[in-house]
Amino acid sequence: MVKERTRADKRPAKKAAPRGKAPAGSACRQSVDAGRERKVSIAQVAVHAGVSVATVSRVLNGSDAVREPTRSRVADSIVALGYRVNQLARSLRTDESRLLLTMVPDIGNPFYAQIVQGINEAVQARGYDMLLCETGGRVDHEKRFLELLHTRRVDGAICLDPDTVQQAQQSEAQRFPWVACCEFDAHAPVAYVGIDNRAAAREAVQYLVSRGHSRIAFVNSDMRFMYARERQNGYEDALRQAGIAARPDYSQSVNGLDFDAGQRAVARLLALDLRPTAVFAVSDTLAIGIMRGLRDAGLAVPTDMAVMGFDDISLASQVSPTLSTVAQPMRQLGLRAAELLLRQLDDPQARVKGIRLPHRLMRRESA
Amino acid sequence: MVKERTRADKRPAKKAAPRGKAPAGSACRQSVDAGRERKVSIAQVAVHAGVSVATVSRVLNGSDAVREPTRSRVADSIVALGYRVNQLARSLRTDESRLLLTMVPDIGNPFYAQIVQGINEAVQARGYDMLLCETGGRVDHEKRFLELLHTRRVDGAICLDPDTVQQAQQSEAQRFPWVACCEFDAHAPVAYVGIDNRAAAREAVQYLVSRGHSRIAFVNSDMRFMYARERQNGYEDALRQAGIAARPDYSQSVNGLDFDAGQRAVARLLALDLRPTAVFAVSDTLAIGIMRGLRDAGLAVPTDMAVMGFDDISLASQVSPTLSTVAQPMRQLGLRAAELLLRQLDDPQARVKGIRLPHRLMRRESA
DNA sequence: CTGAAAGCGCTAACAC
DNA sequence: GTGTTAGCGCTTTCAG
């Protein structure tokens, strides 16, 4: 694999000329900035403080093997020179980048966005930084996952994508610390955090049944997703328990999770010979699209058709009628996933198990 | 199958033998793993191909100073060994990390999420990776901005945060390549991409006026944001042009942009002695919250009160009634911002100017 | 064309 | 306690 470097000049140029990227434009070289040079190395700090680089390094890393007068002298020099550690160099040496990777299918989806917020929170709190990769569900993009792990020496990854879980089984990804979030395989040797999708879906449908519905449709998304398969199971469980025969034509599958996909599903729902009285969608965005489609068709929710969603994105309580749904603790999902990963990083021995977070049925106006 | 690898064997072997090129020839190399060892360095490739590391490096970087037989021999070894460049080492040497930073106030907001998608797209296409920092608008978090730039030797940044723009003026950030997105100061020596907020707001209000409204309220958010100030100007422009006296109590300011903030604003709107007949909110999320609040208060949109938003997030066309708003090209905003930055990186001399993208009035049901 | 060698900035043995 | 020093993996003169 040959990489092409297109970048112009940029030669390491010893101390001759100041390196660094001159900002575009005029007088790249400002007047000497009160001693705060662009690139200060540990060596310069050492000279300034009259100690060796090793000592500076010790101070930097909080080693207790440095006597007080020395320590503060070094500390002063660090401040005086405006020194910053070069994480690149440190990482190269320690083989630990303090970088985490988050792979997400679509941050445009509020559900995923909130999870990423949770991850971000945990990660920042621990002094790590987060690389974000949006895959768009495309498998080839997930290849970059492995590449980055190697290439950037990323310490670990949190993955919200379905396929990665599969790949992980046989690929070398297995040798890396990573945790699955939302999409997981409970039997795979990989930590995860998620909810009990089957039970959650079952409860949602049971609720619909309890409201007197027996003609309940199900709008699902890509079966590549584990949650899609599990929620389908839950849907069928509930029908079975209620003694309702499952009608294959009541189970619709759409591509994607966006509003439009929901709207499109409506047409098929309404074309059914025996029209359902309720719909359960695997995501709020889908459900909202469905409500929109129903409205366009002149039908009222929930009287003409009840609608139930999944996730409880903040939007769910804003639309009209407000959307009944199953709440997932998005932020927590991300937070816990990150913490799991971090713990695994701290102690490789710790055999971290998967955890399930609770879901909750939200009764609102749409069903 | 390969056993789950532990962090321990990844580390520099604290207690084990002093470092050195131990791995080069030792036993672990002959693992059953078809030669695909975890860490293959350029040196190993060199040995395998019977050339020097310099030559391997040349091949890696597409230098044309390598004769064909040699080149393909090296290429073969690279594949055979499963070699991957260590970007850390390369970056340390070249002082170029191929890492970009995106600073965003809140990815939970669909508006920002979409911009980030645009950024991600452009960045990935060019082989860069993106570090994502959610600041939550807190200034201290923005400090990390500068730190990362140094610390990780990030090549550049795209900033959606208001305060950074300010800081940039006097801080050393000025010496780094970065571009402002959405929030910018046209007079600052920093590239930017955004829309003409003042004109856009003016048009929105003019539209309201054209629909016969003269009692038009304005719900704004944090005035720390440039867009907030500019849209306020636009609002006032339009009133002035229409010969409508601006009533101070018609201009409301709320904290944040989420739905709840919008809902809260409604109370104040309804408490006004002379109730407005239309509201213009600076964001769709705010507008949707307002519609929700209005509905709760038993008022109809647009008959009792017309509502106009800003952004045109995908949600805007889903709610009921559908939301009239001013569309911003979110994805393009992010894409162009990233491209601007990348271009600046390619050619530091290029004095990249700011660019304005077009907005568009979306007439829908709410106003 | 290719190789030898000097570092990039930092950490961690191993001295002293 | 503190200093010396050997690299981490890579790019890039500078020789040959």
How would you describe the overall organization of this protein?
Mean pLDDT of chain A is 86; it is low at 1-36. Chain A has 367 residues and is of the alpha/beta class. In chain A, strand 6 (216-220), helix 9 (226-241) and strand 7 (251-253) form a beta-alpha-beta unit. Chain A is elongated, with a radius of gyration of 27 Å. In chain A, the strands form three sheets. Chain A has a six-stranded parallel β-sheet with strand order 2-1-3-4-5-11, sandwiched between helices. The first copy, chain A, folds into two domains: 92-195 and 331-359, Rossmann fold (3-Layer(aba) Sandwich); 197-327, Response regulator (Rossmann fold, 3-Layer(aba) Sandwich). Chain A contains twelve helices and twelve strands. Helices cover 41% and strands 13% of the residues of chain A. In chain A, helix 8 packs parallel to helix 9. At the A-B interface, helix 4, helix 5, strand 2, helix 6 and helix 11 of A face helix 4, helix 5, helix 6, strand 2 and helix 7 of B. Chain B binds a DNA duplex (16 and 16 nucleotides) through helix 3 and helix 5.
